Every structure is written in structure tokens, then in C-alpha cells.
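Structure ticket #2291
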Amino acid sequence: MATIFNAESVSYKLRQSPIPEFSWHTSENLAEQVNAKHMQFQIRSLDPGKYSYPYHFHRNAEEMFVILEGSSLLRTPEGVKEIAKGDVVFFEMGQTGAHQLFNHTDQPCVYLDLASLPELDVAEYPDSGKIKILPSQDDVFQGGDRVDYYDGEASVAEKWEALKLSRGHDGEKKNEQQ
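Resolution: structure written out below.
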């Protein structure tokens, strides 16, 4: 049976972290509504001036964003690039699939977040040296110790400012001889 979801008709919950820069609105896991076996997906809305999850990658899951409305800056190991309505972005497993969004505009960025659903995944956070064992919400470790999910993430704005100084908004390195 086909099930149709519409970004305008799903209900959203605000997800606010202890660090104000990390905040977004998300639907429930829509895959649960259709009893999906191998994937999960939510529709998310990232408000202006906010960051998505901390910069991370997955060891055992693939992820894809479909931008439905607005635009955002996407941080990857290659740099920072603007993505906009109609873009489909695939993140492979491992370090090369690291990603984070920042909404640099004055309008919400609405996107579909699809991911494969392994029984066990490990997410790694290069900025803070943490790992998270998924699907648990509480198994976050740093240097062998269990830590809070947002430990080491408070300076997100400064990290992005440093990226802006060393790169243009399109992700290209600035010529240092200018």
C-alpha cells in the first residue's frame, strides 16, 4: 500500500538542545507509521540561524537529505556549500560522509531526512571526539567515558566563523595570496 506524506500536513515537535544554536523542528519517525523495516525518515525544519545535529558521520548507516523548501549551508569534509530546494544530498558511511547544516538565511529550511536502519550504528563527532552507539539515545562516549551528547559542541558558531574566514560560502578555499 502506498502512503503519502506531505510536509505541510505533518505535525512537528521542537527539538531544543541545551546549546541554543542546535535547534530544529521534526516530525515523528514517519517510517514507524508505515512499519518500514530497513529505513527511517522524518521531515525536519531548520530555523534561521540554527544548526542541525553536531557535525558527525555514521559507521553503519547511509543518510540522504531532500531539500523541500529554503536553503542551508552544508558542511562536509570538502568544505561548506549552499544547498537549496530540489537538491538531494547523499551521505555515505564513514568519515567522507560527515555532515552538518547551518541555516544562514531568514527563512526555514525544510528537508526530508532519510537513513538506512541498521540494527547497530556508531556515529562519530570529529569536532568533539565523541562516539554515540545507536539506536540508544544515552550511549555517548568520549575517551572511554560516557558523556553528555552536547559536551564539546558549545563553540559551534566559532568553528563556522573560522570556516568562513578560510573558505568562501561555496566551499572553495580562498587564495591566500590575495
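Closing remark: DSSP finds two helices and 14 strands in the chain.
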